[in-house]
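Q: Okay, next protein. This is MFS transporter from Streptomyces chisholmiae. I've checked the sequence twice, so it should be correct. Can you predict the 3D structure?
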Amino acid sequence: MERRLAAALITLYVATGLSFSVLVVYMLQQQQLSPAVYGLGATVAAVLGLVAGPAIGTLADRFNGCVLYACLMWTMAVATLGLTVAPPLVALGLLSVLVMSARGSAAILAALVGRAVGRDRRLRFRAVVRAMSNVAMIVGLALGAVVLALGTRAAFRASFVVEAVALFVAGFLVWRVRRRVVVAEEETPATADGPGESARGLLRDRRVVVLMALGWLFALAEPMLTIAIPLWVGARMDVPMWIVSVALVVNTLGVVVLQVPVARRVTTVRQAARSAQLGAVFFAIAAVMFPLAAVLSERVGVAAALGAVAVLAVALVVGNILSSVGSTGLLYDIVPQQSYGKSQGLYGMGFDVASLAAPALFGWFAAGGGPTGWYVLGLLFVVSVLPVQWIQLRTRDAKPATSTCDPAKPDVSAAPAA
């Protein structure tokens, strides 16, 4: 069962990498949409995705998550095929379908891992597949680069057909394990802390609310890499822009190399909390490195500034891995199993909120906020260590491990991010 889930997720990430490469260019060049119209459509899609994650995640708490996930994958496959023949505005509408389905499937995925994968293997399963999914994403991006090099409408349409097939296969693989997941749910205790807690009471637990708020803060790390670094380097530093690509490569390699070893060492609530706290500290270091890199660029030289950006990228990837493993471990431990879908949907909203807020926030930092904005953000990351400690003190630590450090257990491979 775990191997099929892993294969489905890796297949999905090949399709995701392909989509990341070609979708925007197709909309602008082949469908002749103006940047303003496309931007408006993408914003609408992001807002709808923000709502779809928790809503679909809640459905996964009531119905078979494998069936819902497969249906969403097949919906995305049909929508992707529709891009090959749809007129411009219809294609823009299909973008919303794709984003809503993607956010909903991400919530269901995390819930499926919590229910179908044993407690002692969850974090390692997610870690291994996240590492492998980065490799799969690179494959998809490489295929997309070939499409962009060809640049013809036929090449774009062929890429959408390949993507649709990958999405269909991913859905079919998850569909195949639907009965086994139901059996696994029946054999697993209903809750992490108390057997009678209902999904409606999820947000009454202050630990859950605090952890979700922290997750929304930590979600800024992704746009710090993809949005803030290009904006800051372009506006505040006199260095070659290729350093942005170097930062992205450092992030990808860091996830592939470090994700599994870090997850293997997180086996208790205390260790999960410590991992999240260290991640927050590394995020704070990354935030402070932004103004420091600008100062080095101005006063010392290009080499020192490039070194500072490299340190910044390393701090971001290490912080991202530590906070992801720690927060995921805590979330699985404090949320009742029957609420995994709803909790993962709400937690995943942080990514969407960060994606919506980051361009304006980091644009302001680059244009006017300057070092002060980064220092305030760094301070927020440092302060976030305290509520993580509060969560840990109020969560039992005498539970079975949420990940494994037993090298004798078979490596059934893996899962991605969200």
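A: Here is a summary of the prediction. Residues 67 and 390 are 37 Å apart (CA to CA). The chain has two domains: 2-187, 199-393.
Q: Noted. On to the next one.
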